[in-house]
Amino acid sequence: MADASHRYKVGDIEVTVLSDGFRNVPVDGNYLSNATADDLQKALAAAGQPIDKMKNTYSPIVLKTSGKTVLFDTGNGQTASDQSKGERGTLNANLAAAGIDRSKIDVVVISHFHADHVNGLLMPDNSRAFPNAEIKVPEVEWKFWMDDGEMSRASKGRMTELFANNRRVFDAALKRQVTPYAWKKEVVPGVMAIGTPGHSIGHTSYMVESGGKKMFVQSDVCNNVAVFAPYPDWHGFFDQDPPQAAATRRKVYDLLVAEKLPVQGYHFPFPSLGRIEKQGNGYKVVPMSSL
Ligand SMILES: [Zn+2]
User: Fold this and answer.
1) Which of 57, 78, 92, 291 is the most exposed place for a label (fewest CB within 10 A)?
2) pTM for the complete prediction?
């Protein structure tokens, strides 16, 4: 596929953005809970996007920092690649194409426990995709999804499906062999974990800092930039606590505007790097390819 990998530097830290492909999401009344399908179509049209379907892209990153190779989020996984005939789940193929050996990844850092971020931890036979990596997970996220009481109270549908998927990945396959990490602390050298809850209870972003340069890894603070940058207060179906997700979006984007910080966005169009500008009552993301 065309969008395979892209490299740039934050000071001494090398960033490689890797495409995990895409999924076409239907434009309908299920996508937003506080705006209509018509509102959604108007936002897409204003951004010059197709209005019949949205392309949701996935872009994990690898950081080389202090001699360690660190993968942030793992994409949809090899099983999804096989099932979608390479439409998504392409991380492993693109790592190989970029000359990064999966077995030499030292640390995998997970931002939150949604399938498009954690399913790539496993191969189709349930073996580890990154056999020699320590797997670091946000402690808030870990506590919530592994809590049997929370699981028993989960609303039927998306939440019960997420619990089932997380128990399949982390409990059945990985035998809970993970290292929980705290917010406001370094998760790997040069990378601070920052709590950005709402999309999920323990959703985490990161500040990467080296040689006087900074870059913010937002994970899923904003999903589709054509929709949630101009309309940050809209509630997506994928947000666990939609009002909190919207408040987090504004707080983070106000900070990125004020400090003129570049941002790497997991669901931004490849190579998923940009800067945020104020626009009307919302924001826009101006694409970049390096700092
Ligand atoms: Zn996501």
Assistant:
1) 291
2) 0.97
